[in-house]
Amino acid sequence: MEPSLCLSPKPTPKQDHIHKLYKQKNQEKGLSVLAAYTVDVYAFFVNGADHGSNTLRVKQDIQKANEVWNDCVTFQLKGVTTSKRRVNAGSISSDYVLIHPTIEALFQEAQTLEGHKTGIYVLYLSGEYLAPGRGKKVVGVGGTELVSFQNEDDYELTGRILLTEKAAGRYTLAHELGHVLFTRYDAKRAALIQDDPSGPYIYPSGRQNPGHNNDKRNLMYPVSPSERPRITGRQCHTARNSKLTRRQKGI
Ligand SMILES: [Zn+2]
Question: How many Å lie between the centroid of ligand 1 and the Cα of residue 180?
Fold first, then answer.
């Protein structure tokens, strides 16, 4: 499957502040909702930075993702591992990046370190952007690997996301998680699809992009909004039904 290439602008400090106030108010009112659906995330760093700053980085990304996906699914950081290698995003073309031999080997390394547990693996590279391909200034890519397939209801996936340094402080991880969680088997097409259930995005030329959304304020707009993006009920429903989402027992 072709991965989606995504860009997202940086949020302004003011917008971040407003959201913090909103969240604080809700917590005071006791409105925080117990997470019923969870997704495990494993971070793997290939950027040469120290473990402390890498852990901080992924925690910030997860926090932003949980802001957007709040009340729908909750992302839980289950592991942070580091490679001694250093791979610069600028040395990897943004075209078919998830099947690039170097990237494929790095994901394998990350999955082996974590005992091949089911979840979404996030690969952090050094450098600002992937090398230009069809997309320019690409800071994030999201896709999945089919682990096993019995039938249209019984199959296993592993999520794979790649982020560059420029994706920091943005909603890029939240957006890429959307691509991963929207990946499902479509019996009619007899294939895995990654379509946004509230899509498609329509280019000015009229061409359609099924993986993205046409609403500028939606998380899955091709360029993620700088203000806290929204998700629709249909997007939430699809994400909750992902093979990578677990429903917590007793809820
Ligand atoms: Zn995208």
Answer: 10
